[in-house]
Amino acid sequence: MITLSLKGSAEPLGKIDEADLRMLIDQLVEETEEDTDYYVNALTIDLLEQNGASSRLIGLLKQALGDSEGVDIVWRES
User: Fold this and answer.
1) Beta-sheet pairing, 37-41 with 2-6
2) Range of the domain at 24
């Protein structure tokens, strides 16, 4: 399983599976091959949802975004 959290926070948002991680990697921009963080906003979530992201992933990202314009999320293997 993969744990998502807000960048700079030790508190996890939740867990996703390998398919969800693959969706993030395939759909979002990485600065390097070792990059494990992504900037997420409402448009990002809409894009992922349109491209078939799981309801679990979409829910976690919406929770992370809350009322803000955008957030940095980070993933790590757990």
Assistant:
1) unpaired
2) 2-77
Q: Into how many domains does the chain fold?
A: 1
Length of the chain, please?
A: 78
Q: What is the DSSP string of the chain?
A: -EEEEETT-SSEEEEE-HHHHHHHHHHS--SSTT--EEEEEHHHHHHHHHTT--HHHHHHHHHHHTTSSEEEEEEEE-
Quick: pLDDT tens for 38-54. Answer: 999 999 999 999 999 99
- Residue 32: per-residue pLDDT: 81
